[in-house]
Amino acid sequence: MSILENAKQTVQGAAQAAMKKAIALAPDSWLPGGQPDPLIRQQHGLIGAPVSRLDGPLKVRGQAPFAAEFPLDGMVYAAIAFSAVAKGRIAALDLAAAEAAPGVVLVMTHANTPRLQPMPLFLTAEKAAGGDDLPVMQDDRIHWNGQPIAVVLAETQEQADHASSLIRATYEAEPATIAFAEAKAQGTEPGQFMGQPLKLEKGDAEAALAASPVSVDATYVTPRHNHNPIEPHAATLAWDGDRLLLHDASQAVAHTAWSLAQVFGIEEKQVRVTSPFVGGGFGSKTLWQHQVLGAAAAKLAGRPVRIALSREGMHRMIGGRTLTEQRVAIGAQPDGRFEAIIHTGTVAMTRHNALPEPFILPTRSAYAAGSLKLDVEVAYMDMLANTFMRAPGEAVGTFALECAIDELAAKLGMDPVELRIRNEPERDPVEGTPFSARHIVEAWRAGAERFGWSRRNPTPGAVRDGEWLVGLGCATATYPYYRMPGGAARLTLTRDGRVRVEIAAHEMGMGTATAQSQVVAERLGLPLEAVSFAYGDSSLPGVVLAGGSQQTAAIGAAVAAAHRVLVAELLQLAGNDSPLAGLKPEEVGGLDGGLAGLEEPARRESYASILARAGREAVVAEASAPPPLETQHWSMHSHGAMFCEARVNRITGEPRISRFLGSMDCGRILNAKTAASQFRGGIIMGLGLALMEETQFDERKGRIMNPSLAEYHVPVHMDVPEIDVIWTDIPDPHAPMGARGVGEIGITGTGAAVANAIFNATGRRVRDLPITLDKLL
Amino acid sequence: MTPFRYARATEAGEAVRLAAEAGARYLGGGTNLVDLMRETIERPAALIDVTGLAATIKETEAGGLRIGAAARNTALAEHRAVRSRYPALARAILAGASAQIRNMATVGGNILQRTRCTYFYDDAGARCNKRNPGEGCDAIDGFNRSHAILGASPACVATHPSDMCVALAAFDAVVHLAGPAGARQMPLTELHRLPGGHPEIETALRPGELITAIELPPLPIAARSTYRKVRDRASYAFALVSVAAALDVRDGRVADVRLALGGVAHKPWRARRAEEALRGGPATAAAFRVAAEAELAPAAPLRDNGFKIELATRTIAAVLGELAGEAA
Fold first, then answer.
1. Of the candidates A82, A692, A706, which has its C-beta nearest B118's C-beta?
2. Are residues A537 and A595 both part of a single domain?
3. What is the per-residue pLDDT for A4?
4. Which of A108, A171, A494, A703 could cross-link A618 (Cys pair, CB 3.0–4.6 Å)?
5. What range does the domain containing B35 cover?
6. Residue A621 falls inside a structural domain
7. What integer is the mean pLDDT of B112-129?
8. DSSP string, A496-508
């Protein structure tokens, strides 16, 4: 990011800070969420029901079209060649063999790529979606090892791959900053995240730490991670004149459409992005160079293009989580009360991306402490732009924080659950705002009971089962409630008693379409079968990112807004001859296929009757969600109490997880089945983070050496025990439907729960992830 | 993948004739070769499919087993005689890869699979003496946690990835070959080479030679054998260290022993020093540890793999202890 961008962010930050204060002080009733969503009152029905995914049969039959499966007439296939140096320029590209290879349509390099603007960098504008803001194949400069240097289009994928392998590049390499130690030595800069500095001091934490009777102070290290969703990134796209249609694997269709329009210098409405099904996103399925390259090559060739990344290609050009080096120090009284929490450290990033892994975020609101010192410093490296990956900040930040708390508990001789409960804050420790709903203590108690925590032997290394040392550990999971601006939805209610919901949201496998259909059915008083949910298309209303675990709230708020418009319109149509006559929109709700008075359900008229009488086939209502001011008026966070049973082999050091429980407090659960899968999926990813995930970044060349699922380890079935998940199910009165997001929290706390269980099993405190057997021998 | 010709052979003589052209390679299940072709590490001009050749597993007159090279890994692991008389072999196979891969992979192909060294796989970005003899090795000073501690050379520190071969090496398996100059056989332990100055030459096979069968000698001790694989996740990972062992204990002493290691060298590593140290000695935990240390004495650690020395030592001792316990 440029200095100018930084300055702009700072100014935005100052304005935001002033606004934030005003919002914090405003009366509840002025704010979204000030009046609880009426759906919260409905306790029986579809909300929470474990409805199976509506798209399940389609997927099982292989009939759900993914981005690389759309057939387009005359389509050609793309393959990408990548740079093998980290910095410098391309001295020569020998394309002769590639161009002469069978089936080749064209080879695109910086010499013939159409002139393009850089991708708008994610978070720098409302709809910016780019993973980096570098020139895309516009010149001979190399910015990272793995940067695309050529695109081959051919009649088949095999021909394109083959021709791509024949390209010979020579480089004039330049000295690059590719070693973390060297990057740090060159000086670090404070990290900025969404316009706010990742730096905060409350009181004099260093002095409080020094004065504390009991303290811990340690450094924790987490490695780079690469994104590995089951579906590799892909796009199938075609130009029709100046209009671009792109079938993408996307968690941001509207953002991608707008951003591509900026890149190609066309109007936003000239780009349509669809993404009906996505095989996992986790933060990676935004706009990266491949969509731009595919669209540019299609323009050049005058033919539709499919550009599907190989697994290696994903590791070369789709950013992942960056490494972190974190110091956590906690000073406490002998009774366990925290006097100081210090959470500081350094992350690596590039000059061309927007995410300094914000590992301090969980520490801002987790515990009461007399003083706080938080700081994320950035060391700049010449590498692939890092990006958002499931719970960016929290996933690795909770590892450091929650391990440190476990270390402190051991030092105090206190139960780690009790230590956490003892430091439960009354209000948000940093903002001073009230919590919207915080039931972590209930979650701890319920989880401890169910897991059998009281049977834990606090002495490390004391429990054996044959060759195995067995230990129990726990940690707090936490993730904020977000709702981003831009949500809008359209409802079309037809006389046959069906409703169609349209919103440019996303189904990445989480069950969004299913859970939201349940909500809409409940809101309108319709059976589930009467709801159709249209999403995954930038031509639909709304700018909805499937990220930050905010999509559920964003859709919920947009649909609720559209619903208010719909109800008002229906009441008007119903007129004075209806049993509803005289009722105001806020006094009615959906019931049994019609509208009914909330207080007098007997005053009811069916939708069919209202529309028939009005001579209408359908009513269409569209509205935008209110700005998400609730997040500044209340401190809104989800929590979980994570419990792990780990076994470590005394002979080989092999760590294995034998039990896991997540006791979650995420507001109301909308679908017990899909939510449990989200929690479990997050926890499984957390087990990978704890025990095996690591990008091997060779600091001699700045190159990723394990770009495959054989060498980049994620958990396989045998690594995953039965994972028990329970939840408080207490609605958040200030969130739509009473629900906070559930997509990311599972990966938070899990790494620490594993590490803490391994400590309890062995007495070994491993502070650098992943915890592989060599660290336990 | 580079375009290639494909031919399917129905018997060994035909396969050898078909493979006479330059750049031809035999194709088994393709679980490794086809991967390497996709990665453009292998660029054969022709593939001679030998999966239609003998795949039978039958008793030899001597009382051993003769395994057709085209037998699938799964078939071998599930074979009754293998499970009862050479259990370490069945366990080794089942510890490898995934069920889908084992269903495809042939026994001959498993023997000839190539290293998973990540620098070997990165033809665009790394130096490797296997791919380009003489250009240097980026693994020696790079990520080498999974690399060799025994028998490596300054030219190459790669390991052989097979589990199955570790058990075959322990059991004195003999490999039957057909080639342009006729048939011959050799012990499996002599088929794979140490890297020395020529890591690109991985086996003692002559040009055009085809593995037609593997013969296991009658080996009563193998009935009490096991295989233990230590790895970073519970399944679908290559061995950091693995141990195949058979042990015959009589009156508290080691009457006979077979021991081989995986994940430690450029070839399946028959642990003859340890065997020698054990034979005739006491079957005690201490003696097992001493023998294991003797085997690992020449081990040379790299940046990331020093832990393998202690890990291998412990795993050998544990496996022998387990077998001794069984025997007692």
1. A706
2. yes
3. 47
4. A494
5. 5-51
6. yes
7. 97
8. TS-EEEE-S---S
Q: Are residues A491 and A549 in the same domain?
A: yes
Strands (DSSP E) found in chain B: 5-8, 24-27, 46-49, 57-59, 65-68, 174-179, 182-187, 210-216, 225-230, 241-250, 253-262, 269-270
> A130: number of CA atoms within 13 Å, CB side?
24
Nearest C-alpha in A relative to B124? A84
Q: Could you tell me which residues come within 8 angstroms of residue A295 by beta carbon, excluding any fewer than 6 positions away? A: A235, A237, A239, A244, A246, A260, A263, A264, A305
pLDDT in tens, B34-86: 999 999 999 999 999 999 999 999 999 999 999 999 999 999 999 999 999 99
B122, B229, B302: which to substitute to probe chain A, counting the most A Cβ within 10 Å?
Answer: B122
In this predicted structure, the answer to whether residue B326 has a pLDDT above a threshold of 80 is no
In chain A, the percentage of residues whose pLDDT exceeds 90 is 94
From chain A residues 663-692, the ones with a CB under 8 A of any chain B CB are 691-692
Catalytic residue among A569, A605, A630, A744: A744
Return the number of other C-beta atoms located less than 10 Å from residue A28's C-beta. Answer: 14
- Show the DSSP H helices in A53-122 as ranges: 56-60, 96-100
Residues of A in contact with B230 (CB under 8 A): 652, 654, 773
| Phi and psi at residue A218, to the nearest 5° | -145, 165
| ipTM exceeds 0.90, yes or no | yes
Per-residue model confidence (pLDDT) at position A26: 82
| Mean pLDDT, rounded, for B85-109 | 98
- Inside any domain, residue A279: no
Q: What is the dihedral of CA A625, A626, A632, A636, to 10 degrees?
A: -40
- The pLDDT score that the predictor gives to residue A303 is 98
Indicate the residue among A599, A627, A655 that finishes a domain: A627
Number of structural domains chain A divides into: 2
The pLDDT assigned to A2 comes to 47
Domain that holds residue A452: 393-482+632-775
* pLDDT at residue B57 in the model: 98
Last residue of a domain, one of A584, A606, A627: A627
**Sheet strand arrangement including A488-494:** A531-534, A499-502, A488-494, A618-624
Q: If we measure between CA atoms, which residue out of A429, A485, A399 comes closest to residue A194?
A: A485
Stretches where chain A sits below pLDDT 50 are: 1-4
Q: Which of residues 404-423 of A touch B (CB under 8 A)?
A: none
Total-model pTM? 0.97
For residues A356, A362, A363, A366, the Cα torsion angle rounded to the nearest 10 degrees is 170
Chain B residues with CB-CB distance to A223 below 8 A: none
Determine the distance in angstroms separating the CA of B289 from the nearest CA of chain A, rounded to an integer: 12
Q: Is residue B139 part of a domain?
A: no
The pLDDT value recorded for residue B313 is 98
Confirm whether A378 is domain-assigned.
no
A162 touches chain B (CB under 8 A): yes
Q: CA-CA-CA-CA torsion for A638, A643, A647, A653, nearest 10 degrees?
A: 40
**At A742, which CATH number?**
3.30.365.10
Question: Does residue A744 carry a catalytic annotation?
Answer: yes
CB A32 within 8 A of CB A626: yes
pLDDT, tens digit (0-9, with 9 covering 90-100), for A717-733:
999 999 999 999 999 99
The total number of structural domains in chain B stands at 2
Stated as kind and residue range, the H or E segment containing A566 is helix A551-574
Q: Quick one: pLDDT at residue B328? A: 47
